Predict the structure.
Amino acid sequence: MSEYPLEPSELGHKLGKYFYQYRPAANFLVKDEDAAEFLQSQFSNELRPFESSKCTYGLWLNVKGKVVGDSIVLCEDASSFRVLSECSKGDLLAAHMQRHIIADDVLIEHSDPGYIFELSTEAVEALGLTLPQAGHFTRLEGGTLIKALDNRYRLLISSSSGKDAWIAKFMAIECKDISEADFGLRRITAGIPLIPREIGSTDFPGEGELERDAISFTKGCYLGQEVVARMHNIGKAHRRLFVLEGHGTPPEIPLNLYNSDKKLVGELRSAYKNSGFWRGVAILKTRFATTGLELQNENMDAVVINPLRENPKNGSIL
């Protein structure tokens, strides 16, 4: 199969100053005197020390160790934490937590979702913003600038008027507003799974190779920890995320994928248009998946390019 006429990584480099805007699917506070220890017992990554301005990316798992959703947790103070997620729904995450609040003094307070701008490094530098260290956030006039350990800059805005004011600032420095497809292509190039679309409720973290940045193996017990640790210690997962490429318009997803022997080998879970091609992410059985493998579904043909997390660029899409 032919290569793209322009690789997503090259396209991202040529854009320079850009922003991508969306409304987060989750934006709520978890607070009160037991909030810190409660979240520590539920979240897959290490939240300690509970220091103001610290932010941590991780997962919410069920008792079987499967992925309920993901989020960044912002420590606003020792008893107040903000949960933010691009695609994992706030109602679902809050209900998941609520089921496990037994005798804890913990309150969940929903907020207006607000708006998030993901900014290229060039855009952040051109704006002259006060930059947080990786794993921290800083308050700005009219927003909160977040830099999680994936090195992505996220600007959280609480109001539509604030959003418009920031867009005016972006336009003043000739910062481009990129599409979901362009942003998705950059994410794939960086080796970042989109949760829960590409790894979700039927999947284990190891199938998305999320142990490297969303899981702590030293923090002690948390919901789903035993299953995650067992899979990590015993051996590799039998399924894995792969990048696929096809001609024409992106197919509707999810889509079952078959090899030349008509054997079901996986499912396409995302697809983004790029010129006359599309590129997406599928979860495939590792015993069948190899680079160059051709897959089909009715009138759709695709080829396996590489594992999604083969050589991730430190999680950065910028």
In short: The first strand starts at residue 18 and ends at 22. DSSP finds eight helices and 17 strands in the chain. The first helix runs from residue 8 to 15. The two ends are 28 Å apart (CA to CA).
